[in-house]
C-alpha cells in the first residue's frame, strides 16, 4: 500500500465475482433450466466488467437455452456456491419467454414441484421457490 492509502497495484485488489441469472417461468408455470453434465441449474453467467447484470442474464439464458426472455422483476440477491456463475454473489431476476426456440439438448422446461426429484442443487431449488413465492419484494441472503 502506498502512503496515500491506496493499493499500488491493481493485482493486489480482489474483485468479487458477481453472477446474473434468471428464473424463467412460462405461461403454464414451468421453469426453464439449463442441462449440465450432472443435472440442471438456472441459466446464468458471471458479469463481465463492461456489461450490466440484466444484459448478462438475458444473454446467458439465450446462449444456454435458445429461449429469448424479458426480465419482469428481481427475485433476489443470493450467495449460491452451487451455481458456477454465482460463486460469490448472485443477482437473480424473474423473467418470461418472449421468443426463440428451446435447444432440448441444452435445456428443459420443468415443473417446479418436481425439482426435488431431479438432480438440482438444493440452493437452486430455493431460488426457484423464492421466484414462485415472490409478491413484489426481493429476497436478500
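^ C-alpha cells above, recovered residues below v
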Amino acid at each position: 500500500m502506498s502512503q496515500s492509502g491506496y493499493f499500488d497495484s491493481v493485482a493486489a485488489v480482489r474483485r468479487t465475482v458477481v453472477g446474473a441469472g434468471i428464473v424463467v417461468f412460462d405461461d403454464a408455470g414451468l421453469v426453464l433450466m439449463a442441462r449440465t453434465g450432472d443435472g440442471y441449474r438456472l441459466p446464468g453467467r458471471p458479469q463481465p466488467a463492461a456489461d450490466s447484470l440484466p444484459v448478462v442474464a438475458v444473454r446467458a439464458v439465450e446462449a444456454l437455452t435458445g429461449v429469448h426472455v424479458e426480465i419482469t422483476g428481481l427475485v433476489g440477491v443470493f450467495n449460491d456456491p452451487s451455481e458456477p456463475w454465482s460463486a460469490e454473489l448472485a443477482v437473480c431476476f424473474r423473467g418470461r419467454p418472449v421468443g426463440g426456440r428451446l435447444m432440448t439438448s441444452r435445456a428443459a422446461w420443468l415443473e417446479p414441484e418436481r425439482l426435488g426429484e431431479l438432480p438440482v442443487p438444493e440452493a437452486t431449488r430455493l431460488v426457484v421457490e423464492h421466484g414462485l413465492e415472490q409478491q413484489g419484494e426481493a429476497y436478500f441472503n
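Residues 43 and 63 are 9 Å apart (CA to CA).
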